[in-house]
Specification:
Distance between the termini: 52 Å
Order of helices and strands: HHHHHHHHHH
Oligomer: single chain
Largest sheet: none
Shape: globular
């Protein structure tokens, strides 16, 4: 018995690192949230979904239900996109995934240089402005660069909630003024400069991602 107690006393105690682990996790989530918010907020300016916000505001003239519809549609759409990103991260080898994500961001940068346009006018639903905005915005966001950016961000960062909340906030930052102010806002924004800024940000994130892959490989 004494020998067992002695052995237990000689066993080195594990250092409690949980505060450090929490801080590291919070730092990763904060980086994911801030990157997602800023990147999508800039990319959304002049995007077809922002153009849709202008049209909805002009036709429905009910800003609160429109904004609520945009919020719910974005959360649902980007939650799906983020889930796909995390699924891809689990299926693709880490090294290959980093290159895919990095090159995707650079591709988004080239995409951002192209002026966007709204294909069709949104269909008005008898149920009201909220459902009209929700359905129209969800469908318009399908296949859009901000949705693909959410997939890539979720694959890059192991912080699904932070990415989805960040991209959603970025969308709302760009679309709330569009709903309240309308097309007058579009006339005052230097769209070409914003597109160039969005392109530069996407390329920068892509380059940093690829640089990280090269350093890891070395």
């Amino acid at each position: 018995m004494d020998a067992v107690v002695g052995e237990q006393r000689n066993v080195p105690r594990k250092r409690k690192t949980w505060p450090v682990d929490i801080l590291v996790t919070d730092r990763v989530e904060l980086e994911a949230f801030l990157t997602s918010t800023f990147l999508v907020a800039v990319a959304e300016i002049g995007d077809k979904t922002q153009l849709l916000s202008f049209v909805l505001a002009a036709r429905l003239r009910k800003p609160w239900p429109i904004m609520a519809g945009i919020l719910v549609a974005t959360l649902a759409n980007h939650a799906l996109a983020g889930w796909l990103g995390r699924l891809m991260a689990g299926l693709v080898p880490a090294g290959t995934l980093t290159w895919i994500v990095g090159l995707s961001f650079i591709g988004f940068g080239l995409w951002a240089l192209h002026p966007d346009s709204l294909d069709d006018s949104p269909r008005l639903h008898k149920t009201g402005a909220f459902v009209t905005a929700l359905v129209a915005f969800f469908l318009a966001e399908m296949g859009d660069k901000t949705q693909f950016a959410t997939v890539a961000l979720a694959a890059r960062f192991d912080a699904l909630a932070a990415v989805v909340l960040g991209t959603t906030l970025g969308m709302m930052i760009a679309n709330i003024p569009a709903v309240w102010i309308g097309e007058k806002l579009a006339q005052k924004i230097p769209m070409k400069a914003v597109r160039m800024l969005a392109a530069a940000l996407f390329v920068m994130v892509g380059t940093l991602t690829l640089w990280g892959a090269l350093r890891t490989a070395a």
